[in-house]
Amino acid sequence: MRAILICCSLLGLIALDGCKTENYVWENWSYTAVPLVAVNTTKSALPTVSTANTSFFALNDADLPNQVFEYTLRWEGFGKAEVNSIDVYLGFNKAAATGNPAYPIVLSQPGGLYPSVTQFPLPSRVGAADKLYETVTQFPKTFTVTAAQLAAFTGVNLSTVAQNDYFLFKFILNLKDGRRIAGFQENVCDEARGEVGDCRVGVRFRRR
């Protein structure tokens, strides 16, 4: 009886395979590299945590234009892929009316390592409002920019920004094998889950 059941199971699998009529993109998977960032938390105008990939500008401070956001960009190929360059995009985003992450940043429990929620909305696609900021070819690369410089690049008047508005850098990898990789989904760059890559990093406006 067991031999008959095994035989029937094998026949069933063969029949199912023979009935396949669709080839899916995800079946042709391949290895890629991912971008990684490290925020200089000492430059943040308000306290932050490194795992959040988030810095802050103090919205009601007189020196707001001169406040600094700094992060270092590199990549990891896990011995499977190599990067020629990373296209870095920058955009300004108005905060949603509700649902913005709490401040101070709440760390997940148990563990107390990662923020309990994503600090910026996902997915994090490069959109029409995002502008190419720089194409990086030498790594690691450190970006040190002021609020005034970010505002000038994106065409934003700092006097009009509000609580929880934010600047967001996004990354697209150009691999040595010719592929162009944009990793924007939750299973790549969700800082609340400590995912393998960092497809974006940003600085948010908050009042003290």
UniProtKB/TrEMBL annotation:
Q: Which domain of life is it from?
A: Bacteria
Know the name of this protein?
Uncharacterized protein
| Organism expressing this protein natively | Spirosoma sordidisoli
